[in-house]
Specification:
By secondary structure, the protein is an alpha/beta fold. It contains 16 helices and 11 strands. The protein has a single domain, classed as TIM Barrel (Alpha-Beta Barrel), CATH 3.20.20. About 40% of the residues lie in helices and about 15% in strands. The strands form 2 sheets. It has a 7-stranded parallel β-sheet. It has a 4-stranded mixed β-sheet with strand order 9-1-10-11, with helices on one face. The radius of gyration is 20 Å and the shape is globular. The C terminus is likely disordered.
Length: about 400
């Protein structure tokens, strides 16, 4: 047992009872999570989350951190919704909608570089109905059968279902038949209705989002889950969000990864109404989600949002995945993110190894493609510079 873990278990530590629960593999409660959020003992929190990450990883994989060689495709930015925190969707005069051939051409340029996943999401556009996406999927899979299509948020499934006048399950079945391989976790935002009302989020309430992911799991699809912060939520909203996800995972068991996200405000009108999450806040979200979501295999430090440095530090707070090389990312950058649009595999591996972990290239379903043990560092990134 490490010295830090011994200190976390010490009777003098205000979190020692929670530490004992973590060590004994006892599920944490809502009250436990609220205390963790309220605590200023960031080192104990990091120590407990790192312990949980290692236990979840399994013997021999304690230092593994995953990444994927992928690309993002966003076929349309026109959206009928008007969520106040979104800078990606556009009115008709500023919108675009790609033809099937344009989507295929975009895919070809990155597939030539050896990617193995296409991550595809877009706006809610009546021109892009279920027939459009079936054609897109079939066209890509016909030319590139080896490519995994991770596509369609629960929000998009709900919209396509309503457009077609068919149920969620029937919509999923048609898209799976066309080539859908898994689903991203977008559109969850914050499940709390008070937050959603303030942000004018009319789409896909928590019950619908969870239902669609449950149906996807029933049909054999793995999916991810997200939580968007910086949109006027409080810590209880965040904990309740995690608890709903944990409950759904107990039922259907198909979530692979949880991704805490933060809002960017360029192009929105909400920055004077909300508090922007700090690095300290983000690290707490990472660590507490690792402790609360005990039935989720993976927690992601999404470098495109966090930035490379903070994502590195998040690896010491329970995260075991940094997402992928990405190519071109539109949604976060439309809102003002200053991170690079892509990272080469070599840069991704350097960031992971510099943080003291072992870079592991994976596929979408976390099957290992390559373990890179060369040049791995032995010490973690210092915590202090990013906690202010």
């Amino acid at each position: 047992m490490s010295i830090l873990l011994e200190k976390a278990l010490a009777s003098s530590n205000s979190l020692s009872d929670i530490a004992n629960k973590v060590i004994s593999n006892t599920r944490l409660t809502k009250e436990d999570a609220l205390r963790l959020y309220q605590s200023s003992d960031i080192l104990t929190l990091a120590t407990l989350a790192e312990h949980q990450r290692q236990i979840k990883a399994g013997a021999g994989k304690e230092k593994y951190v995953y990444y994927i060689h992928n690309m993002h495709l966003n076929p349309t930015n026109f959206c009928v919704e008007t969520c106040r925190f979104c800078s990606y969707s556009n009115t008709l005069s500023k919108s675009y909608t790609w033809t099937v051939e344009q989507v295929l051409e975009k895919a070809r340029t990155r597939i030539k570089l050896g990617i193995n996943e296409i991550h595809m999401v877009g706006g809610l556009n009546p021109k892009c109905d279920i027939n459009y996406y079936e054609t897109v999927f079939r066209t890509i899979k016909k030319e590139f059968p080896q490519i995994h299509l991770k596509a369609m948020t629960a929000v998009e499934i709900e919209y396509l279902s309503n457009l077609a006048g068919i149920g969620y399950q029937a919509t999923l079945e048609r898209l799976i038949e066309a080539g859908l391989g898994s689903m991203p976790g977008g559109g969850a935002e914050m499940f709390a209705e008070s937050v959603r009302a303030k942000m004018r989020v009319k789409k896909t309430p928590a019950s619908t989002w969870l239902e669609i992911h449950g149906l996807a799991h029933k049909l054999g699809l793995n999916t991810n889950a997200t939580m968007l912060t910086g949109i006027g939520e409080n810590i209880e909203n965040k904990v309740d969000h995690m608890l709903l996800l944990r409950e759904q995972q107990d039922k259907s068991g198909g979530f692979l990864c949880f991704i805490p996200l933060k809002c960017y405000y360029d192009g929105t009108t909400i920055q004077n109404e909300v508090s922007e999450p700090t690095g300290y806040d983000v690290l707490k979200d990472i660590a507490i989600s690792r402790l609360m979501l005990d039935n989720f295999p993976h927690i992601k430090a999404y470098w495109i949002q966090l930035g490379e440095n903070l994502a590195q530090v998040a690896l010491s707070f329970g995260a075991d995945d940094m997402d992928g090389t990405i190519g071109e990312e539109k949604i976060t950058h439309a809102a003002g993110a200053k991170t690079p649009l892509e990272l080469a595999k070599e840069n991704m591996e350097y960031l992971i190894s510099e943080a003291g972990y072992i870079p592991v290239e994976r596929d979408t379903l976390y099957n290992i493609i390559k373990v890179s043990k060369e040049n791995c560092q032995t010490t973690n990134v210092p915590l202090e510079p990013v906690l202010a």
